[in-house]
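Good morning C.,

I know you're traveling, so I'll keep this short. The sequence:
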Amino acid sequence: MYISPAAVQSRGLSLFPRSLLLDGVSNRVSRIPPPRSFSVPHPFSASLHAARAPPPPLSLSSVLHTVARPPRSAPAPPLSPPLPTMLTPEHAWPLQSVLVATGLAMSPLVASVGWAMRSGRFSNALPRTSQMAADVPPFVARARAAHANNLETLGLYAGGMAAGVAAGVPPGVLGRLATSYVVGRAAYNVLYVGGEAWCRTGGYARSAVYATLCLGPCLRLWAAAAGEAAALGKSV
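The tokens, ready to paste straight into the viewer:
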């Protein structure tokens, strides 16, 4: 049977039952996803929460660890790099030769002081007086003279060696001159204190040794240092 829409409206009928309409609406509503909820944290909420939080409980081990822990010391400053130096291992002998030359300069005193002590004439209050008397044996007088001669060139040699090192004279040259001076001083002491009667040179052998092996190396040290300084001045 056909029922027109107007008849339906006049009679208050509906094409769809009320229950079906409500079920459809409820299904559509249930399919709509719920709105997402979000909240912006307050900038002071974390600090306030931390302030309200109770402190952690203390234990005996944590207290002992805090007490026994040593205070932190300031870190050590970094080590500065070593300063540049002109010295090398080859300079060891040239510098040591100054000490050897000093010992050789004092060695003639062993003969003169030993004689004064053996003869009972040595006095610590006036040690030089007993060794310079007119009646001393000849070898004691020669020992005193050899000691004085060594001291005359010791300062010249030490200064020349220092000047050579500072001017940059090659270590090989310094080593050869140091060996010549030490050998010359040892030979000079033996010839002067021991006497030259056994070789009958009349003192000329001692003088030759002094000129070539004692005074010569000192002058050559200063000459080499001056030459290096002059060459450095020309290159600047």
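Safe travels,
E.
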